[in-house]
């Protein structure tokens, strides 16, 4: 096939049947792909566009077709477009439809937003779909998270008696012994070694995830639940997780299974950050050894002044407070800039974080590094103090 003919066929697929007169017809092998595209995007042919209708079998068949014709990344985009253009949310409650979908985090977000209306005959299928996504994300991120966190725990403890050469922090050791420089030998004779103490079995850090479960935070809830489960598996950390809207739910006891966490969420509703922070403050055991991650767009529906006061009290107590406007791949969200600037003034700059960046962020917090400096080095734009 010539390059010009191939381009015309591509344009015909993109533009739909109305472009047939200018681009020419399609060969038989492309008609199925054309029907799948037309069912979703062709506004000019009511019969074809309405072919999905309200029928679960038709939708399931269409979902199977697009998986045949397109790669998974395109399938996920088309599924999201179908939700917006054709209103298929309710049909996700049918098992035959769920069996055909290409699962991704966006689909999980949709399912957990519908979990209160999922009928009994669909719940098992919905859980299987969610579990597939959770396990896939966990495989991708768990090893990196454990490596970053356990390494940070090792490095966070210093000792003047490192057990072996590999445990010596040479930069700190050299700086501490510069006065012992020997010009005739051109070297420093270290009289005092500084090294890393090997990680202890006892709990060294408390990590608290305080997650806004309002509707706009759906992807963040999915990822934070998975990370909470991974962190909870590290014995040197004491990990807890709180979900909030206008009420606060402590789901720490469910962290062994992030799928249970997700089906325990209730996306939507208002936002009361003040109440959530006060609950977390009441759970503190060792403020100076606590990393608290507030994941919220900071649109406070409760008492904003009280929210600011409790945030300041947490920081003054020694808690390392981190504010994530989102924990997702969706980019920078809409957020309350005034509140973000206030948190920045406390030393807790607010910024969006991707799942791939989160392990290094937690490692930096465990080592008590400057989070603003870490974010700048990672190329992340943060809020600034007013």
Describe this structure in words.
The chain has 386 residues and is an alpha/beta fold. Helix content is 48%, strand content 12%. It has 17 helices and ten strands. It has helices at residues 3-15, 20-23, 31-41, 46-49, 56-69, 72-86, 95-98, 105-113, 120-156, 170-176, 218-232, 258-263, 273-282, 304-316, 337-345, 358-366, 371-377, and strands spanning 158-159, 181-182, 187-188, 195-196, 205-212, 237-244, 248-250, 290-295, 320-327, 350-353. The chain has a six-stranded mixed beta sheet, sandwiched between helices. Strands 1-4 form a two-stranded antiparallel ribbon. Helix 3 packs across helix 5, helix 9 crosses helix 11 and helix 13 (273-282) packs parallel to helix 14. The longest helix is centred in the middle third of the chain and has 37 residues, at 120-156. It is globular, with a radius of gyration of 26 Å. The model is unreliable at 44-50 (pLDDT under 50).
């Amino acid at each position: 096939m010539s390059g010009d003919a191939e381009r015309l066929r591509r344009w015909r697929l993109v533009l739909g049947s109305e472009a047939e007169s200018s681009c020419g017809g399609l060969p038989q092998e492309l008609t199925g792909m054309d029907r799948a595209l037309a069912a979703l995007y062709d506004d000019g042919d009511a019969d074809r566009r309405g072919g999905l209708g309200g029928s679960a079998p038709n939708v399931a068949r269409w979902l199977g077709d697009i998986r045949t014709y397109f790669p998974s990344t395109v399938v996920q985009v088309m599924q999201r477009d179908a939700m917006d253009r054709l209103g298929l949310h309710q049909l996700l409650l049918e098992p035959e439809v769920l069996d055909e979908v290409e699962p991704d985090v966006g689909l999980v977000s949709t399912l957990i937003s519908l979990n209160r209306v999922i009928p009994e005959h669909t719940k098992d299928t919905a859980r299987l779909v969610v579990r597939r996504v959770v396990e896939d994300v966990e495989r991708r991120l768990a090893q990196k998270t454990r490596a970053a966190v356990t390494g940070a725990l090792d490095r966070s403890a210093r000792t003047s008696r490192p057990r072996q050469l590999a445990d010596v922090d040479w930069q700190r050791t050299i700086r501490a012994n510069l006065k012992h420089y020997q010009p005739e030998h051109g070297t420093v004779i270290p009289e005092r070694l500084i090294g890393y103490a090997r990680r202890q079995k006892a709990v060294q850090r408390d990590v608290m995830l305080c997650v806004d479960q309002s509707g706009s935070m759906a992807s963040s809830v999915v990822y934070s639940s998975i990370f909470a489960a991974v962190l909870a598996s590290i014995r040197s950390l004491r990990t807890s997780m709180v979900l909030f809207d206008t009420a606060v739910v402590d789901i720490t006891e469910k962290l062994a299974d992030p799928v249970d966490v997700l089906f325990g969420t209730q996306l939507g509703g208002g936002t009361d950050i003040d109440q959530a922070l006060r609950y977390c403050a009441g759970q503190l055991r060792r403020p100076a050894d606590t990393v608290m991650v507030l994941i919220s767009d900071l649109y406070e529906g409760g008492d904003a002044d009280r929210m600011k006061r409790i945030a300041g009290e947490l920081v003054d107590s020694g808690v390392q407070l981190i504010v994530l406007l989102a924990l997702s791949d969706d980019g920078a969200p809409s957020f309350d800039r005034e509140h973000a600037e206030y948190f920045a003034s406390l030393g807790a700059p607010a910024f969006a974080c991707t799942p791939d960046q989160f392990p290094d962020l937690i490692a930096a917090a465990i080592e008590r590094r400057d989070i603003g400096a870490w974010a700048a080095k990672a190329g992340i734009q943060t809020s600034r103090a007013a």
